Amino acid sequence: MHGFLHDQFLLDKGLTNYWGYNTLSFFAPHRAYLKTGRADEVKQVIRKLHKAGIEVILDVVYNHTAEGSELGPTLSFRGIDNASYYLLATNRRHCFDTTGCGNTLNVAHPMVLRMVIDSLRYWVQAMHVDGFRFDLASTLGREAEGFERDGSFFAAIRQDPVLSQVKLIAEPWDIGEGGYQVGGFPFPFREWNDKARDDMRAYWRRDPGLKGDLAQRLLGSPIQFDHSRRPATSSINFLAAHDGFTLRDVVSHDGKHNEANGEDNRDGHDHNISHNLGAEGPTDDPGILEARHRRSKAMLATLLLSQGVPMLLAGDEFGQTQGGNNNTYAQDSEISWLHWDAADDRLVAAVAALVAFRREVGLADSRFARGPGEGDGPEITWHGPDGSLAEDGWAQEAPLGLRYHRAESDLLIVLAPGEAAEFQLPEGTWRRRIDSSRDPVVCDTIESGKVSLGWQSVSVWQEVAG
């Protein structure tokens, strides 16, 4: 949203900075996003979104600017006071770059910090946004000795009467030493949790030995976030983000296809944790298409039934593909535009049903779940296909059950990552509410005893009061 410049090397190739992560003007909306050129347009859009019950989280880049490295253009900050606005290397001719974009904004400097805080307050007080997602947020916590969770930026946010009350989401890493800080940010920050993304992708790809890790993700990643009085909503869980494969491409491609970016497919990371399920890219094979659909629903169900805050990449709810391009920052083109006309209606219906179910049964909880007698959070127990879970069961591909013991009615979530299987329900009568192997995924079947599970599926039962 902030005013930005297009990188010259992209313009030279006939491309543009589609994501806009090349900020220059922290107090102005990007001119090309406005029809009339008046900033009031932003207020009008936000006002209409609020009327529709939609909050606005602004994606902001305060970690670097469009001035790039010492070889980049001198546009404002570098000409005013290069040594104050930017972190410099030992040889002060060069920038100290923790962002991969040529420079690093020196947010630890009092005047730079003031500028960033003033910018944030402007977007809240003048434009009425509801919060921010901070790109490469570890950079904002860099002090003289490295990342400091109690550093000046975080202290300023927490003490500010305006900013401490809005939603704050960190991308908790940068590319510098010590930059990976998932779980290391102070309250009230929430954090993108790439561990949840990776474990959910790998579990449904049927990688071995992931039951224990997946159990952590279902509970909101307490190993990372259950400390310093942080709530169970600290983890922003996701399967895909703008940076990387879409969910459809996760189940359609074994490798990236970034040729259109003009870098001989060298750009973009190779750690996609994807599987094409039998054919690379588009296919007419009905078996492969069904397998992709089934796995997509199971992954979405896992996301939307986990503790923490679920985040969906725009288009994942209807099967958006980028043709295997996992770095579309330069693609203002058919590759990254959302194709609503090609929406998978079955997937749309499944996502809508899962979101509605999550809200209906009140899965969101600020307290971390605990085993029996372990604390005041929701009480949970784990179950295997025979109704119990032996210690060695965590290493098997057999179905995994998570039971929430609740005063009104218990919930049982069962994940079956492999082939069709059977599962022994706990004693009593249960109503199957969700089955991701079906279309539609919503169910209303009374069951007890041993039940059937579809291959690559997630099912949910609600206890019938006795």
Explain the overall architecture.
The protein is of the alpha/beta class and 466 residues long. It has two domains: 2-360, Glycosidases (TIM Barrel, Alpha-Beta Barrel); 368-463, Golgi alpha-mannosidase II (Immunoglobulin-like, Sandwich), CATH 2.60.40.1180. Helices cover 24% and strands 18% of the residues. It has helices spanning 8-11, 40-51, 77-85, 110-125, 152-159, 194-204, 211-218, 222-225, 247-250, 286-304, 345-361, and strands at residues 2-4, 23-29, 57-60, 131-134, 142-143, 146-147, 167-170, 189-193, 235-238, 309-311, 379-383, 400-405, 411-416, 421-424, 430-435, 442-447, 450-453, 457-463. It has a six-stranded parallel β-sheet with strand order 3-4-7-8-9-10. Helix 6 crosses helix 7. It is globular. The mean pLDDT is 95.
Layout of secondary structure:
Blueprint: E1 2-4, H1 8-11, E2 23-29, H2 40-51, E3 57-60, H3 77-85, H4 110-125, E4 131-134, E5 142-143, E6 146-147, H5 152-159, E7 167-170, E8 189-193, H6 194-204, H7 211-218, H8 222-225, E9 235-238, H9 247-250, H10 286-304, E10 309-311, H11 345-361, E11 379-383, E12 400-405, E13 411-416, E14 421-424, E15 430-435, E16 442-447, E17 450-453, E18 457-463
Parallel strand pairs: 3-4, 4-7, 7-8, 8-9, 9-10
Antiparallel strand pairs: 1-2, 5-6, 11-12, 12-13, 13-18, 14-17, 15-16, 15-18
